[in-house]
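Changelog excerpt

This revision adds worked examples to the README so contributors can see how folded entries look when concatenated. The first example is reproduced verbatim below.
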Amino acid sequence: MLKVSHVTKYYDDFRAVNDISFEIKEGEIFGLLGVNGAGKTTTFRMIMGLLDKTSGEITLDNKKIDYSITDKIGFLTEERSLLGTKTVLEQATYYGVLKGLTPKEVETELDKYLKEFNIEEYKNKKIKELSKGNQQKIQFIISVLHKPKLLILDEPFSGLDPINVEMFKKVILRLKKENTIIIFSSHMMEHVEYFCDSLIILVKGNVVLSGKLTKIKSDYRRKNIKIIADTTKETLEKVDGVISVEKNKDEFNVKIEDIKYVGNVFKSLSKCDNVLKFVVEEPTLHEIFIDKVGESYEE
Protein backbone atom coordinates (compact mmCIF):
# COMPACT_ATOMS: atom_id res chain seq x y z
CA MET A 1 0.00 0.00 0.00
CA LEU A 2 1.09 3.56 -0.75
CA LYS A 3 0.20 5.91 2.08
CA VAL A 4 0.47 9.70 1.89
CA SER A 5 -0.30 11.28 5.27
CA HIS A 6 -0.73 15.03 5.84
CA VAL A 7 2.01 15.98 3.39
CA THR A 8 2.90 19.64 2.91
CA LYS A 9 5.61 21.18 0.75
CA TYR A 10 6.96 24.72 0.88
CA TYR A 11 9.40 26.36 -1.54
CA ASP A 12 10.64 29.16 0.70
CA ASP A 13 7.41 31.05 1.49
CA PHE A 14 5.39 29.46 -1.31
CA ARG A 15 3.19 26.53 -0.28
CA ALA A 16 3.02 24.18 -3.28
CA VAL A 17 1.16 21.33 -1.55
CA ASN A 18 -1.01 21.71 1.53
CA ASP A 19 -1.77 18.83 3.90
CA ILE A 20 -2.75 16.14 1.39
CA SER A 21 -3.57 12.58 2.43
CA PHE A 22 -4.59 9.46 0.50
CA GLU A 23 -4.02 5.70 0.39
CA ILE A 24 -3.78 3.36 -2.59
CA LYS A 25 -4.00 -0.41 -2.18
CA GLU A 26 -2.44 -3.05 -4.42
CA GLY A 27 -4.39 -3.45 -7.65
CA GLU A 28 -5.99 0.00 -7.43
CA ILE A 29 -5.75 2.86 -9.91
CA PHE A 30 -5.88 6.24 -8.22
CA GLY A 31 -6.48 9.56 -9.99
CA LEU A 32 -4.35 12.56 -9.03
CA LEU A 33 -5.89 15.48 -10.88
CA GLY A 34 -5.57 19.22 -11.22
CA VAL A 35 -4.80 21.97 -13.70
CA ASN A 36 -1.20 22.96 -14.44
CA GLY A 37 0.45 24.31 -11.31
CA ALA A 38 -1.92 22.51 -8.95
CA GLY A 39 0.87 20.60 -7.18
CA LYS A 40 0.74 17.27 -9.01
CA THR A 41 4.38 17.20 -10.15
CA THR A 42 5.59 18.23 -6.70
CA THR A 43 3.54 15.41 -5.20
CA PHE A 44 4.94 12.89 -7.69
CA ARG A 45 8.49 13.94 -6.87
CA MET A 46 7.91 13.66 -3.13
CA ILE A 47 6.42 10.18 -3.57
CA MET A 48 9.47 9.09 -5.56
CA GLY A 49 11.86 10.50 -2.99
CA LEU A 50 13.25 13.06 -5.44
CA LEU A 51 12.02 15.97 -3.35
CA ASP A 52 11.95 16.37 0.41
CA LYS A 53 8.56 17.14 1.91
CA THR A 54 8.27 19.94 4.47
CA SER A 55 6.03 17.84 6.74
CA GLY A 56 3.99 14.66 6.72
CA GLU A 57 4.83 11.07 5.84
CA ILE A 58 4.93 8.94 2.69
CA THR A 59 5.36 5.15 2.90
CA LEU A 60 5.24 2.21 0.50
CA ASP A 61 4.35 -1.03 2.29
CA ASN A 62 4.95 0.76 5.62
CA LYS A 63 8.51 1.73 4.62
CA LYS A 64 9.81 5.24 4.06
CA ILE A 65 10.60 5.77 0.38
CA ASP A 66 14.34 6.14 -0.07
CA TYR A 67 17.00 4.74 -2.42
CA SER A 68 16.56 1.28 -0.91
CA ILE A 69 13.09 0.93 -2.48
CA THR A 70 13.01 3.38 -5.40
CA ASP A 71 13.72 0.43 -7.71
CA LYS A 72 10.12 -0.61 -7.00
CA ILE A 73 8.77 2.58 -8.58
CA GLY A 74 8.09 3.27 -12.26
CA PHE A 75 7.35 6.75 -13.61
CA LEU A 76 6.04 7.79 -17.01
CA THR A 77 6.60 11.53 -17.10
CA GLU A 78 4.53 13.90 -19.21
CA GLU A 79 7.73 15.35 -20.69
CA ARG A 80 9.92 13.33 -23.03
CA SER A 81 12.94 12.05 -21.10
CA LEU A 82 14.59 9.89 -23.74
CA LEU A 83 18.03 10.44 -25.26
CA GLY A 84 17.55 10.90 -28.98
CA THR A 85 20.98 9.58 -30.00
CA LYS A 86 20.55 6.24 -28.20
CA THR A 87 18.88 3.21 -29.72
CA VAL A 88 15.75 1.80 -28.10
CA LEU A 89 17.75 -1.14 -26.71
CA GLU A 90 20.53 1.12 -25.41
CA GLN A 91 18.03 3.44 -23.72
CA ALA A 92 16.09 0.56 -22.17
CA THR A 93 19.30 -1.09 -20.95
CA TYR A 94 20.49 2.15 -19.35
CA TYR A 95 17.30 2.63 -17.34
CA GLY A 96 16.76 -1.07 -16.69
CA VAL A 97 20.20 -1.56 -15.17
CA LEU A 98 19.64 1.50 -12.98
CA LYS A 99 16.51 -0.27 -11.69
CA GLY A 100 18.42 -3.44 -10.85
CA LEU A 101 17.95 -5.60 -13.96
CA THR A 102 20.72 -7.33 -15.88
CA PRO A 103 21.15 -6.41 -19.58
CA LYS A 104 19.77 -9.84 -20.52
CA GLU A 105 16.67 -9.34 -18.33
CA VAL A 106 16.13 -5.93 -19.91
CA GLU A 107 16.30 -7.34 -23.43
CA THR A 108 13.90 -10.18 -22.59
CA GLU A 109 11.28 -7.78 -21.18
CA LEU A 110 11.87 -5.25 -23.95
CA ASP A 111 11.31 -7.87 -26.66
CA LYS A 112 8.04 -8.89 -25.02
CA TYR A 113 6.69 -5.34 -24.95
CA LEU A 114 7.94 -4.40 -28.41
CA LYS A 115 6.03 -7.37 -29.78
CA GLU A 116 2.90 -6.43 -27.83
CA PHE A 117 3.04 -2.87 -29.18
CA ASN A 118 3.83 -4.05 -32.74
CA ILE A 119 7.13 -2.15 -32.93
CA GLU A 120 9.70 -4.98 -32.89
CA GLU A 121 11.54 -3.40 -35.84
CA TYR A 122 12.46 -0.35 -33.73
CA LYS A 123 14.62 -2.22 -31.25
CA ASN A 124 17.90 -1.03 -32.76
CA LYS A 125 16.69 2.31 -34.11
CA LYS A 126 17.66 5.60 -32.52
CA ILE A 127 15.01 7.34 -30.45
CA LYS A 128 15.15 10.46 -32.62
CA GLU A 129 14.15 8.38 -35.65
CA LEU A 130 10.82 7.43 -34.07
CA SER A 131 7.52 9.29 -34.26
CA LYS A 132 6.21 11.03 -31.12
CA GLY A 133 3.68 8.25 -30.64
CA ASN A 134 6.32 5.52 -30.84
CA GLN A 135 8.60 7.47 -28.51
CA GLN A 136 5.71 7.51 -26.04
CA LYS A 137 5.42 3.73 -26.37
CA ILE A 138 9.14 3.32 -25.61
CA GLN A 139 8.92 5.68 -22.66
CA PHE A 140 6.02 3.65 -21.28
CA ILE A 141 7.82 0.35 -21.83
CA ILE A 142 10.90 1.63 -20.00
CA SER A 143 8.75 2.69 -17.04
CA VAL A 144 7.40 -0.86 -16.56
CA LEU A 145 10.35 -3.07 -17.63
CA HIS A 146 11.35 -3.74 -14.01
CA LYS A 147 7.80 -4.73 -12.97
CA PRO A 148 7.32 -1.88 -10.49
CA LYS A 149 5.29 -2.19 -7.33
CA LEU A 150 4.17 1.44 -7.77
CA LEU A 151 3.62 2.96 -11.21
CA ILE A 152 3.01 6.69 -11.77
CA LEU A 153 1.46 7.57 -15.13
CA ASP A 154 1.43 11.29 -15.98
CA GLU A 155 -0.54 11.92 -19.21
CA PRO A 156 0.27 8.42 -20.54
CA PHE A 157 -1.73 8.83 -23.77
CA SER A 158 0.04 11.99 -24.95
CA GLY A 159 0.67 11.84 -28.70
CA LEU A 160 -1.17 8.54 -29.20
CA ASP A 161 -3.86 7.77 -31.78
CA PRO A 162 -7.04 5.89 -30.70
CA ILE A 163 -5.67 2.46 -31.68
CA ASN A 164 -2.53 2.91 -29.59
CA VAL A 165 -4.57 4.30 -26.69
CA GLU A 166 -6.44 0.99 -26.66
CA MET A 167 -3.12 -0.90 -26.56
CA PHE A 168 -2.03 1.16 -23.55
CA LYS A 169 -5.37 0.60 -21.81
CA LYS A 170 -4.99 -3.15 -22.19
CA VAL A 171 -1.51 -3.14 -20.62
CA ILE A 172 -2.51 -0.79 -17.79
CA LEU A 173 -5.48 -2.98 -16.86
CA ARG A 174 -3.23 -6.05 -16.93
CA LEU A 175 -0.79 -4.34 -14.56
CA LYS A 176 -3.71 -3.57 -12.27
CA LYS A 177 -4.69 -7.27 -12.29
CA GLU A 178 -1.10 -8.08 -11.35
CA ASN A 179 -1.59 -5.92 -8.20
CA THR A 180 0.47 -2.94 -9.31
CA ILE A 181 -0.35 0.25 -7.40
CA ILE A 182 -1.06 2.85 -10.09
CA ILE A 183 -1.34 6.63 -9.86
CA PHE A 184 -3.00 8.02 -12.98
CA SER A 185 -2.95 11.67 -13.97
CA SER A 186 -4.62 13.10 -17.05
CA HIS A 187 -6.52 16.14 -18.27
CA MET A 188 -8.80 13.79 -20.20
CA MET A 189 -11.54 13.08 -17.68
CA GLU A 190 -13.04 10.22 -19.71
CA HIS A 191 -9.78 8.31 -19.25
CA VAL A 192 -9.82 8.99 -15.51
CA GLU A 193 -13.42 7.71 -15.32
CA TYR A 194 -12.42 4.60 -17.26
CA PHE A 195 -9.52 3.65 -14.99
CA CYS A 196 -9.80 5.16 -11.54
CA ASP A 197 -11.37 3.67 -8.42
CA SER A 198 -10.70 6.76 -6.31
CA LEU A 199 -9.27 10.20 -6.94
CA ILE A 200 -8.16 13.50 -5.52
CA ILE A 201 -8.40 16.93 -7.18
CA LEU A 202 -5.86 19.61 -6.29
CA VAL A 203 -6.21 23.35 -6.78
CA LYS A 204 -3.22 25.50 -5.85
CA GLY A 205 -1.92 22.67 -3.70
CA ASN A 206 -5.18 22.23 -1.79
CA VAL A 207 -7.53 19.25 -1.94
CA VAL A 208 -10.92 20.38 -3.26
CA LEU A 209 -12.41 16.92 -3.83
CA SER A 210 -11.44 13.37 -2.88
CA GLY A 211 -12.94 9.92 -2.47
CA LYS A 212 -14.38 7.00 -4.42
CA LEU A 213 -15.42 8.03 -7.91
CA THR A 214 -18.83 6.34 -7.61
CA LYS A 215 -19.61 8.21 -4.39
CA ILE A 216 -18.35 11.54 -5.75
CA LYS A 217 -20.73 11.23 -8.68
CA SER A 218 -23.71 10.08 -6.62
CA ASP A 219 -23.20 12.84 -4.02
CA TYR A 220 -22.98 15.57 -6.63
CA ARG A 221 -26.38 17.24 -6.54
CA ARG A 222 -26.44 18.50 -10.10
CA LYS A 223 -27.80 15.94 -12.54
CA ASN A 224 -28.45 15.59 -16.26
CA ILE A 225 -31.77 14.54 -17.76
CA LYS A 226 -31.94 13.09 -21.26
CA ILE A 227 -35.34 13.76 -22.86
CA ILE A 228 -36.99 12.86 -26.15
CA ALA A 229 -40.44 14.44 -26.21
CA ASP A 230 -42.71 16.86 -28.06
CA THR A 231 -41.50 19.91 -26.17
CA THR A 232 -39.28 22.90 -26.86
CA LYS A 233 -35.97 24.20 -25.58
CA GLU A 234 -37.70 27.41 -24.43
CA THR A 235 -40.29 25.48 -22.40
CA LEU A 236 -37.63 23.43 -20.58
CA GLU A 237 -35.47 26.48 -19.88
CA LYS A 238 -38.37 28.09 -17.96
CA VAL A 239 -38.66 25.18 -15.50
CA ASP A 240 -37.58 25.98 -11.94
CA GLY A 241 -34.20 24.39 -11.15
CA VAL A 242 -33.02 24.06 -14.75
CA ILE A 243 -29.52 25.43 -15.37
CA SER A 244 -29.24 24.85 -19.11
CA VAL A 245 -30.80 23.01 -22.03
CA GLU A 246 -29.01 21.71 -25.10
CA LYS A 247 -30.63 19.99 -28.06
CA ASN A 248 -28.87 17.42 -30.22
CA LYS A 249 -31.11 16.22 -33.05
CA ASP A 250 -34.27 14.96 -31.27
CA GLU A 251 -32.76 14.70 -27.77
CA PHE A 252 -32.67 17.37 -25.10
CA ASN A 253 -29.89 17.39 -22.49
CA VAL A 254 -31.24 19.22 -19.44
CA LYS A 255 -28.91 20.16 -16.58
CA ILE A 256 -30.61 20.72 -13.22
CA GLU A 257 -29.26 22.43 -10.10
CA ASP A 258 -30.34 19.65 -7.74
CA ILE A 259 -31.93 16.22 -8.00
CA LYS A 260 -35.00 17.60 -6.18
CA TYR A 261 -35.97 19.44 -9.40
CA VAL A 262 -36.46 16.26 -11.43
CA GLY A 263 -40.19 16.34 -10.66
CA ASN A 264 -40.48 19.89 -11.99
CA VAL A 265 -38.98 18.85 -15.31
CA PHE A 266 -41.17 15.76 -15.55
CA LYS A 267 -44.28 17.81 -14.75
CA SER A 268 -43.46 20.22 -17.57
CA LEU A 269 -43.92 17.30 -19.99
CA SER A 270 -47.41 16.41 -18.73
CA LYS A 271 -49.11 17.97 -21.75
CA CYS A 272 -46.86 16.27 -24.28
CA ASP A 273 -48.46 13.64 -26.49
CA ASN A 274 -45.22 11.64 -26.81
CA VAL A 275 -42.53 11.23 -24.16
CA LEU A 276 -40.18 8.63 -25.62
CA LYS A 277 -37.28 9.12 -23.21
CA PHE A 278 -36.79 10.58 -19.72
CA VAL A 279 -33.55 9.40 -18.12
CA VAL A 280 -31.81 10.97 -15.12
CA GLU A 281 -28.04 10.53 -15.38
CA GLU A 282 -25.07 11.15 -13.11
CA PRO A 283 -22.89 14.07 -14.23
CA THR A 284 -19.62 13.29 -15.96
CA LEU A 285 -16.33 13.71 -14.10
CA HIS A 286 -15.51 16.44 -16.64
CA GLU A 287 -18.51 18.47 -15.42
CA ILE A 288 -17.63 17.94 -11.77
CA PHE A 289 -13.99 18.85 -12.38
CA ILE A 290 -14.89 22.09 -14.17
CA ASP A 291 -17.36 23.02 -11.44
CA LYS A 292 -15.07 22.26 -8.48
CA VAL A 293 -11.90 23.70 -9.95
CA GLY A 294 -13.65 26.81 -11.29
CA GLU A 295 -15.39 27.38 -7.96
CA SER A 296 -12.07 27.17 -6.11
CA TYR A 297 -10.35 29.60 -8.45
CA GLU A 298 -13.14 32.12 -7.92
CA GLU A 299 -12.75 32.09 -4.12
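The second example, added in the same revision:
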Amino acid sequence: MYTQQGQRIRPPAVAGQFYPADPASLEALVRESFAEARKAPLHPVKAMIVPHAGLIYSGPVAASAYQMLLPQADRIRRVVLLGPSHRVGFHGLAMTSADAYETPFGIVPIDKSALEEIQGLPQVHLLDEAHRYEHSLEVQLPFLQAVLGDFYLVPLVVGDATPEQVAEVLERLWGGDETLIVISSDLSHYHPYDEARMIDSETSKAILELDPSRIGYDNACGRNPVNGLLELARRHRLQPELVDLRNSGDTAGDKSQVVGYGAYVFSQPPGGMH
Protein backbone atom coordinates (compact mmCIF):
# COMPACT_ATOMS: atom_id res chain seq x y z
CA MET A 1 0.00 0.00 0.00
CA TYR A 2 1.25 3.48 -0.72
CA THR A 3 0.07 7.02 -0.03
CA GLN A 4 -0.82 9.49 -2.76
CA GLN A 5 -2.23 12.95 -1.99
CA GLY A 6 -3.10 11.78 1.50
CA GLN A 7 -4.90 8.65 0.27
CA ARG A 8 -3.86 5.07 1.01
CA ILE A 9 -3.78 3.18 -2.31
CA ARG A 10 -3.80 -0.59 -2.73
CA PRO A 11 -1.61 -1.07 -5.85
CA PRO A 12 -2.15 -3.78 -8.48
CA ALA A 13 -0.78 -7.12 -7.28
CA VAL A 14 -1.28 -9.30 -10.36
CA ALA A 15 -0.90 -6.85 -13.26
CA GLY A 16 1.55 -8.42 -15.67
CA GLN A 17 0.46 -11.90 -14.52
CA PHE A 18 -3.31 -12.29 -14.68
CA TYR A 19 -3.70 -9.38 -17.09
CA PRO A 20 -1.41 -6.90 -18.91
CA ALA A 21 0.22 -4.16 -16.85
CA ASP A 22 0.33 -1.86 -19.87
CA PRO A 23 -2.94 0.14 -20.14
CA ALA A 24 -3.10 -0.07 -23.95
CA SER A 25 -2.53 -3.82 -23.95
CA LEU A 26 -5.10 -4.26 -21.18
CA GLU A 27 -7.65 -2.20 -23.09
CA ALA A 28 -7.07 -4.35 -26.18
CA LEU A 29 -7.57 -7.56 -24.19
CA VAL A 30 -10.74 -6.25 -22.52
CA ARG A 31 -12.12 -5.21 -25.92
CA GLU A 32 -11.27 -8.65 -27.27
CA SER A 33 -13.11 -10.26 -24.35
CA PHE A 34 -16.16 -8.15 -25.12
CA ALA A 35 -16.11 -9.20 -28.77
CA GLU A 36 -18.58 -12.03 -28.14
CA ALA A 37 -21.71 -9.94 -27.65
CA ARG A 38 -24.57 -11.33 -25.58
CA LYS A 39 -28.18 -10.29 -25.44
CA ALA A 40 -29.31 -7.66 -22.95
CA PRO A 41 -31.16 -8.96 -19.86
CA LEU A 42 -34.92 -8.63 -19.60
CA HIS A 43 -34.62 -6.75 -16.30
CA PRO A 44 -31.83 -4.70 -14.71
CA VAL A 45 -29.04 -6.78 -13.21
CA LYS A 46 -28.74 -6.57 -9.42
CA ALA A 47 -25.99 -9.14 -8.89
CA MET A 48 -23.65 -11.38 -10.83
CA ILE A 49 -21.21 -14.25 -10.44
CA VAL A 50 -18.13 -14.04 -12.66
CA PRO A 51 -14.81 -15.96 -12.86
CA HIS A 52 -11.40 -14.61 -11.87
CA ALA A 53 -8.65 -16.50 -13.69
CA GLY A 54 -6.10 -14.93 -16.00
CA LEU A 55 -7.99 -12.85 -18.54
CA ILE A 56 -6.89 -14.95 -21.51
CA TYR A 57 -8.62 -17.90 -19.83
CA SER A 58 -11.74 -16.53 -18.15
CA GLY A 59 -11.99 -13.03 -19.66
CA PRO A 60 -14.49 -13.88 -22.42
CA VAL A 61 -16.79 -15.62 -19.90
CA ALA A 62 -16.67 -12.73 -17.42
CA ALA A 63 -17.14 -10.17 -20.21
CA SER A 64 -20.32 -11.90 -21.34
CA ALA A 65 -21.89 -10.93 -18.01
CA TYR A 66 -20.31 -7.49 -17.73
CA GLN A 67 -21.66 -6.40 -21.09
CA MET A 68 -25.17 -7.05 -19.84
CA LEU A 69 -24.66 -4.04 -17.56
CA LEU A 70 -24.36 -1.60 -20.46
CA PRO A 71 -28.08 -0.61 -20.57
CA GLN A 72 -27.95 0.39 -16.87
CA ALA A 73 -24.31 1.47 -16.56
CA ASP A 74 -25.20 5.13 -16.02
CA ARG A 75 -27.25 4.21 -12.92
CA ILE A 76 -24.66 2.07 -11.12
CA ARG A 77 -22.59 4.16 -8.74
CA ARG A 78 -21.41 1.54 -6.24
CA VAL A 79 -20.09 -2.01 -6.67
CA VAL A 80 -20.03 -4.41 -3.72
CA LEU A 81 -17.32 -6.89 -4.74
CA LEU A 82 -16.76 -10.16 -2.87
CA GLY A 83 -14.21 -12.86 -3.65
CA PRO A 84 -12.54 -15.76 -1.86
CA SER A 85 -9.17 -15.60 -0.13
CA HIS A 86 -6.50 -17.64 -1.93
CA ARG A 87 -3.50 -16.77 0.26
CA VAL A 88 -4.64 -15.87 3.80
CA GLY A 89 -6.76 -18.04 6.08
CA PHE A 90 -9.23 -16.28 8.38
CA HIS A 91 -12.79 -16.36 9.64
CA GLY A 92 -15.43 -13.98 8.33
CA LEU A 93 -15.07 -11.17 5.80
CA ALA A 94 -12.06 -8.85 5.48
CA MET A 95 -12.21 -5.10 4.90
CA THR A 96 -9.22 -3.00 3.87
CA SER A 97 -7.92 0.25 5.34
CA ALA A 98 -7.10 1.48 1.82
CA ASP A 99 -8.96 4.47 0.40
CA ALA A 100 -8.75 3.16 -3.16
CA TYR A 101 -7.72 0.25 -5.37
CA GLU A 102 -5.48 0.90 -8.36
CA THR A 103 -5.32 -0.83 -11.77
CA PRO A 104 -3.51 0.13 -15.00
CA PHE A 105 -6.74 1.96 -15.91
CA GLY A 106 -6.49 4.22 -12.84
CA ILE A 107 -7.82 4.67 -9.32
CA VAL A 108 -11.09 3.18 -8.00
CA PRO A 109 -12.21 4.94 -4.79
CA ILE A 110 -13.52 2.85 -1.90
CA ASP A 111 -16.90 3.69 -0.37
CA LYS A 112 -15.78 4.23 3.22
CA SER A 113 -19.30 5.06 4.42
CA ALA A 114 -20.46 1.63 3.22
CA LEU A 115 -17.69 -0.04 5.21
CA GLU A 116 -18.83 1.89 8.28
CA GLU A 117 -22.27 0.34 7.85
CA ILE A 118 -20.89 -3.19 8.23
CA GLN A 119 -17.83 -2.83 10.46
CA GLY A 120 -19.90 -3.42 13.60
CA LEU A 121 -20.90 -6.92 12.44
CA PRO A 122 -18.96 -9.64 14.31
CA GLN A 123 -17.99 -11.48 11.10
CA VAL A 124 -16.42 -8.36 9.51
CA HIS A 125 -12.76 -7.58 10.27
CA LEU A 126 -10.10 -5.14 9.11
CA LEU A 127 -7.42 -7.33 7.52
CA ASP A 128 -5.22 -5.61 4.93
CA GLU A 129 -3.14 -8.76 4.50
CA ALA A 130 -6.11 -10.53 2.92
CA HIS A 131 -6.29 -7.81 0.24
CA ARG A 132 -2.57 -7.32 -0.39
CA TYR A 133 -1.99 -10.07 -2.98
CA GLU A 134 -5.55 -11.30 -3.59
CA HIS A 135 -6.43 -11.57 -7.29
CA SER A 136 -10.10 -12.56 -7.04
CA LEU A 137 -11.19 -8.94 -6.57
CA GLU A 138 -8.49 -7.23 -8.61
CA VAL A 139 -9.14 -8.99 -11.92
CA GLN A 140 -12.76 -7.79 -11.94
CA LEU A 141 -11.81 -4.12 -11.78
CA PRO A 142 -10.67 -3.56 -15.39
CA PHE A 143 -14.03 -4.87 -16.63
CA LEU A 144 -15.94 -2.70 -14.17
CA GLN A 145 -13.87 0.35 -15.12
CA ALA A 146 -14.44 -0.30 -18.83
CA VAL A 147 -18.22 -0.66 -18.45
CA LEU A 148 -19.06 1.75 -15.62
CA GLY A 149 -16.38 4.43 -15.81
CA ASP A 150 -16.50 6.12 -12.39
CA PHE A 151 -17.90 4.19 -9.43
CA TYR A 152 -17.26 3.53 -5.75
CA LEU A 153 -16.01 0.12 -4.64
CA VAL A 154 -16.82 -1.93 -1.55
CA PRO A 155 -14.15 -4.68 -1.65
CA LEU A 156 -14.50 -7.63 0.72
CA VAL A 157 -12.33 -10.75 0.77
CA VAL A 158 -14.28 -13.71 2.15
CA GLY A 159 -12.64 -16.31 4.38
CA ASP A 160 -14.37 -19.06 6.35
CA ALA A 161 -17.92 -17.72 6.53
CA THR A 162 -21.41 -19.23 6.45
CA PRO A 163 -23.98 -18.29 3.80
CA GLU A 164 -25.93 -16.50 6.54
CA GLN A 165 -22.92 -14.42 7.58
CA VAL A 166 -22.25 -13.35 4.00
CA ALA A 167 -25.95 -12.70 3.36
CA GLU A 168 -26.16 -10.45 6.44
CA VAL A 169 -23.34 -8.28 5.08
CA LEU A 170 -24.86 -8.14 1.59
CA GLU A 171 -28.27 -7.21 3.03
CA ARG A 172 -26.76 -4.17 4.76
CA LEU A 173 -25.17 -3.07 1.49
CA TRP A 174 -28.06 -4.04 -0.81
CA GLY A 175 -29.12 -0.49 -1.69
CA GLY A 176 -31.17 0.25 -4.81
CA ASP A 177 -30.49 0.56 -8.52
CA GLU A 178 -27.25 2.41 -7.76
CA THR A 179 -25.68 -0.70 -6.15
CA LEU A 180 -24.38 -3.74 -8.05
CA ILE A 181 -23.21 -6.89 -6.26
CA VAL A 182 -20.40 -8.87 -7.91
CA ILE A 183 -19.29 -12.29 -6.65
CA SER A 184 -15.96 -13.49 -7.98
CA SER A 185 -15.61 -17.28 -8.28
CA ASP A 186 -14.28 -19.96 -10.59
CA LEU A 187 -15.95 -23.38 -10.66
CA SER A 188 -14.23 -26.80 -10.53
CA HIS A 189 -10.44 -27.06 -10.63
CA TYR A 190 -8.05 -29.43 -12.44
CA HIS A 191 -10.38 -32.18 -13.65
CA PRO A 192 -10.23 -33.66 -17.16
CA TYR A 193 -12.38 -31.73 -19.62
CA ASP A 194 -15.45 -34.00 -19.78
CA GLU A 195 -15.49 -34.64 -16.04
CA ALA A 196 -15.25 -30.90 -15.36
CA ARG A 197 -18.18 -30.22 -17.67
CA MET A 198 -20.35 -32.69 -15.73
CA ILE A 199 -19.35 -31.24 -12.35
CA ASP A 200 -19.83 -27.63 -13.49
CA SER A 201 -23.19 -28.45 -15.04
CA GLU A 202 -24.45 -29.68 -11.66
CA THR A 203 -23.03 -26.61 -9.90
CA SER A 204 -24.71 -24.43 -12.49
CA LYS A 205 -28.07 -26.08 -11.81
CA ALA A 206 -27.63 -25.42 -8.08
CA ILE A 207 -26.89 -21.74 -8.75
CA LEU A 208 -29.91 -21.39 -11.04
CA GLU A 209 -32.11 -23.10 -8.44
CA LEU A 210 -30.69 -20.82 -5.69
CA ASP A 211 -29.64 -23.86 -3.66
CA PRO A 212 -26.42 -23.24 -1.68
CA SER A 213 -26.62 -26.66 -0.01
CA ARG A 214 -25.42 -28.33 -3.23
CA ILE A 215 -22.27 -26.24 -3.72
CA GLY A 216 -19.14 -27.44 -1.92
CA TYR A 217 -15.55 -26.20 -1.91
CA ASP A 218 -14.63 -28.57 -4.74
CA ASN A 219 -17.39 -27.09 -6.92
CA ALA A 220 -16.44 -23.41 -6.65
CA CYS A 221 -13.44 -21.72 -5.02
CA GLY A 222 -15.74 -18.80 -4.16
CA ARG A 223 -18.30 -21.10 -2.58
CA ASN A 224 -18.68 -18.95 0.55
CA PRO A 225 -19.55 -15.65 -1.16
CA VAL A 226 -21.55 -17.49 -3.86
CA ASN A 227 -23.68 -19.27 -1.29
CA GLY A 228 -24.24 -16.04 0.63
CA LEU A 229 -25.57 -14.42 -2.53
CA LEU A 230 -27.83 -17.41 -3.29
CA GLU A 231 -29.26 -17.24 0.23
CA LEU A 232 -30.14 -13.58 -0.25
CA ALA A 233 -31.30 -13.98 -3.84
CA ARG A 234 -34.00 -16.36 -2.59
CA ARG A 235 -35.23 -13.81 -0.06
CA HIS A 236 -35.30 -11.02 -2.63
CA ARG A 237 -36.82 -13.26 -5.31
CA LEU A 238 -34.11 -12.52 -7.79
CA GLN A 239 -34.25 -14.34 -11.12
CA PRO A 240 -30.93 -16.04 -12.00
CA GLU A 241 -29.80 -16.49 -15.58
CA LEU A 242 -26.88 -18.45 -16.98
CA VAL A 243 -24.97 -16.24 -19.40
CA ASP A 244 -21.99 -18.46 -20.19
CA LEU A 245 -20.52 -21.76 -18.96
CA ARG A 246 -17.14 -22.89 -20.24
CA ASN A 247 -13.73 -23.89 -18.97
CA SER A 248 -10.08 -23.25 -19.72
CA GLY A 249 -10.12 -26.08 -22.26
CA ASP A 250 -12.61 -24.03 -24.29
CA THR A 251 -10.70 -20.77 -24.07
CA ALA A 252 -6.91 -20.92 -23.88
CA GLY A 253 -5.80 -24.12 -22.13
CA ASP A 254 -5.40 -27.81 -22.81
CA LYS A 255 -8.13 -30.29 -21.90
CA SER A 256 -6.24 -32.60 -19.52
CA GLN A 257 -6.75 -30.45 -16.41
CA VAL A 258 -9.18 -27.58 -16.71
CA VAL A 259 -10.73 -24.87 -14.54
CA GLY A 260 -14.43 -24.17 -14.87
CA TYR A 261 -15.85 -20.69 -15.48
CA GLY A 262 -19.48 -19.63 -15.19
CA ALA A 263 -21.12 -16.24 -15.67
CA TYR A 264 -24.52 -15.64 -14.08
CA VAL A 265 -26.70 -12.56 -13.66
CA PHE A 266 -29.47 -12.05 -11.11
CA SER A 267 -32.29 -9.67 -11.95
CA GLN A 268 -35.02 -8.08 -9.87
CA PRO A 269 -38.26 -8.36 -11.83
CA PRO A 270 -40.75 -5.47 -11.58
CA GLY A 271 -42.86 -5.82 -8.46
CA GLY A 272 -40.32 -8.14 -6.82
CA MET A 273 -39.70 -7.99 -3.08
CA HIS A 274 -37.00 -5.52 -2.02
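Reviewer comment on example two: Residues 44 and 72 are 7 Å apart (CA to CA). The radius of gyration is 17 Å.
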